[in-house]
Design a protein that fits this description.
By secondary structure, the protein is mainly β. It has 5 helices and 41 strands.
Length: 565
């Protein structure tokens, strides 16, 4: 009996031990999966009567299982589970962290103007899980140079967190497409890669600092220049040259702008200037309508105005006199000048002497810095190139008068040019030669002054008086007398005769003959003294007014050793 009691007590103790079994091992539960707390045949589908855990526990076949919700934070939980069949268990459950996050949108695309800064918003991270987590953020690719992003973001369950990308794109940044990847790495080996595509747009208009369209003379254009800058680069500068034109439309006349030429400007190295050469053929007033464009197609417009003046580059002496030149001498006389680099046609319109004659020789030529060109006959033309002085060259071998006319014709844009009329005369005149003549106590030197002009040819006269021929106490003036030119003598005689006649008439009127004759005597003596006046040490005498020295004075006549030899 005692043995049975012992067996019964032992069985009861065993059942009690089974009923109050404790699992000392920690059970790891992943909220994303079903967690089995225990498996035992004694469960036998019995329902749970007591559950001290904060999460639900149920029986499934011969197991105790739990679907731990994400609302249960990660951590270690102790609890007791009893079944309706008196089966009970104590459990330690470690709820593992569970995170499932993603960034939306899953790609970042936008258009940004260069020269701006700001933020790219709208990127959020949504976390599904039972704990917060830290996400490391980085950016690569060529877009990373212009974007800044927070290195680390902490996200919490059911709370959206923002990822802000801050951009700063300088005005000098090249426009175009920039790419990169936003890399997100979580604490629990979660990661995500988000492509970033940003289109940088250049909408900065070129800045025009200066436009120069100077007026100029036809055929001598000056460069037009446009000074402009851009945040990146200027790709082209173009302009149309317009001219106001009158157009007849029915009974009305309209003024329209007609395009004369399209200009394409060329960049001047190491400057911000662009240059172009305008059309230069037609005088008038013109307008320039142009634009500056950069590589992105941004345009800045400009307008200007200029005028083209007619050429006025030829200056002439419209009347030229070439008088009293010795025959067979070349006359070279400046008749004008061409002040600019332009051609001028000179035509011999008329000439009074024969240029093609077997008996006389007459030559005409136009002389410039480039040489001389002969005018062969009337209506013959030569062309000279400026800038240069223009000379008329004449040659004749007969003592005759001549006259002629030259016409000048510039390019079509030149103002009208006056004709040049010229006239002159060739003469037979003496050629001065040096002579030294001894007259009493004097050596008289006749030095020739030669010139192709008879009026300018002559002698300069000097003489030497020896000191031993002048007595002490004598009047030196009496020893320095020279003979007066014939014209002066004739004028003296005429003056004297006129004065005599005038005084006679006055004496007759006044009946005061004594006083008159006395005055005449005094006047005659004064004239005599003037005639014997002192000559300067040099005295110039012209060929046609030289008084041939008397044979008594010179010791011979003119043809036998006189000053003409």
């Amino acid at each position: 009996m005692k043995h049975k009691t012992t067996i019964a007590a032992s069985l009861l103790l065993l059942l009690s031990g089974l009923a109050a079994a404790t699992h000392t091992n920690e059970i790891q539960a992943n909220p994303a999966n079903k967690t089995v707390l225990a498996t035992n045949s004694t469960v036998n589908g019995s329902n749970v009567s007591t559950n001290t855990f904060s999460f639900p526990v149920r029986t499934e076949n011969n197991s105790l299982v739990s679907d731990i919700p994400l609302s249960i934070p990660a951590g270690v939980y102790d609890g007791r589970v009893e079944l309706e069949n008196n089966y009970s268990h104590n459990f330690t459950v470690r709820v593992l962290p569970y995170v499932n996050w993603s960034l939306t949108p899953d790609k970042i695309e936008d258009t940004i103007n260069v020269g701006t800064s700001g933020k790219l918003t709208g990127q959020t991270i949504s976390l599904t899980g039972n704990t917060n987590t830290t996400i490391d953020v980085s950016l690569n690719g060529n877009v990373s140079k212009y974007l800044q992003v927070t290195d680390q973001v902490t996200v919490y369950p059911d709370i959206n967190s923002s990822v802000v990308l801050q951009y700063n794109v300088r005005e000098t940044t090249e426009y175009g497409l920039y790419n990169g990847t936003l890399q997100l790495n979580g604490s629990y080996n979660n990661s995500q890669q988000v492509p970033v595509r940003l289109q940088f747009k250049d909408n900065v208009t070129p800045a025009i600092q200066d436009v120069e369209t100077p007026s100029f003379t036809a055929t001598f254009p000056e460069n037009f220049t446009v000074k402009a800058s851009d945040n990146l680069n200027i790709s082209a500068v173009k302009a149309e040259v317009l001219n106001e034109t009158q157009v007849q439309s029915g009974n009305t006349t309209e003024t329209v702008n007609k395009t004369i030429e399209t200009l394409s400007f060329t960049k001047i190295e190491n400057t911000q200037k662009w240059a172009a050469r305008p059309p230069a053929e037609s005088p008038g007033t013109f307008y320039v309508d142009g634009y500056v464009v950069d590589g992105a197609g941004n345009r800045a417009n400009f307008t200007s105005k200029y005028s083209v003046e007619e050429i006025d580059a030829v200056e002439v002496n419209s009347s030229v006199s070439l008088q009293n030149y010795r025959v067979e001498s070349e006359i070279v006389e400046k008749i004008g000048k061409v002040e600019r680099e332009t051609p001028v046609e000179i035509t011999l319109e008329s000439f009074s002497q024969p240029l093609q004659s077997p008996n006389e020789t007459w030559n005409l030529a136009i002389k410039t810095r480039n040489g001389e060109k002969f005018l062969r006959n009337e209506n013959h033309s030569v062309t000279v190139e400026g800038p240069t002085p223009v000379y008329l060259k004449v040659y004749g071998n007969v003592p005759e008068r001549f006259d002629g006319r030259l016409s000048f014709e510039g390019v079509k844009q030149h103002v009208p040019i006056d004709d040049v009329r010229f006239n002159g005369q060739y003469l037979q005149c003496k050629v001065p030669k040096k002579e030294i003549i001894t007259v009493f106590d004097r050596n008289v030197t006749y030095s020739p002054v030669n010139s192709d002009s008879c009026e300018k040819a002559g002698w300069r006269v000097s003489y030497f008086i020896s000191a031993d021929t002048v007595p002490i106490g004598s009047n030196l003036k009496q020893s320095t007398r020279v003979f007066i030119p014939e014209q002066v003598q004739e004028e003296t005689e005429d003056f004297r005769e006129n004065e005599k006649q005038r005084l006679k008439e006055k004496a007759a009127d006044n009946a005061d003959w004594g006083k008159v004759f006395l005055f005449i005597a005094v006047l005659g003596w004064g004239a005599f003294l003037w005639e014997r006046r002192v000559a300067p040490s040099w005295y110039y005498t012209r060929l046609k007014t030289t008084d041939l020295l008397s044979t008594d004075f010179l010791g011979g006549d003119d043809d036998e050793g006189g000053i003409f030899g």
